[in-house]
Amino acid sequence: MEKKRWIAAGAALVIFVVLMVVTPKIPQAEEYHDFADQRKLFFGIPNTLNVISNIPFFFVGIVGLVLCYWRNYFQLSLQGELVGWTLFYLGVAAVAFGSSYYHLNPNDATLVWDRLPMTVAFTSIMAIFIIERVDEKKGTISLLPLFLAGVLSIMYWRYFDDLRPYAVVQFVPCIVIPIMAIIIPPMYTHSSYWLWAAGFYLLAKVAEAIDKPIYKWTHQIVSGHTLKHLFAAMVPVFLTLMLAKRTIELDRRSLLTKWKIYMVEVKERKFKSNSTETNLDVEYTAVSTTTE
Predict the structure, then answer these.
(1) Which of 97, 157, 240, 277 is spaced 20 to 30 Å from 11 by Cα?
(2) Among residues 119, 135, 253, 238, which one has the least CA distance to residue 186?
(3) What is the pTM of this model?
(4) From the centroid of its chain, how far is CA 256?
């Protein structure tokens, strides 16, 4: 098992190096900073809605951080869990400041402070998932390397104007975590909340991609980027609800297995229902024939 893990880690590193060699450089486009909604709605705040729509991150981050330590409300028992969730909620709360600072004056220099706290959140949540689903010790050890990888990916982008490492840090957890949530048996209940969180993050990326069309469709009421912030803030909301509700999973079956069992049960119920209807039809026909 240990050998397989080292092989998997080595394979991942080789794939990353190969991708860096064979794929073209991805520079930060200047158009990225040209958001649809640039209005000063009140107090002279530029890009007002894009700035204030970051406020939910602060409140969710602070609430989550407090509950991590208040009477062990989340019942974090595994080694590294408390550190991982602390880093996650610190990252979430810091997004409110970093993203607001960026949207006051959108450019590459301020974008660093927008992406840095998000990277802390991405990498810590990946480590948490490894702790819960793969291996407690290795997940705990991975907290620091993943955090450093995230910081280095931003530094690499800033100094070499190449987004490839940052794209890996951002999108790999978004792909791997939902897959792992489906196929790997959970330690805790309410595992489906991971999928709700992933779904809202996907909505956030879609809204970000169609920033200007959404602004046009809503008759310049709200832009896609503002909605992106609100959808993204729902990710820590659902993860906080998950932490508050979950307990130790006694029946450790993956979501995929549960879905398969559910589908079999649905088919069995449908088959029994059809069989009952057929029997009733036969009995009705027999009664009718006897009567005649």
Answers:
(1) 157
(2) 253
(3) 0.86
(4) 19
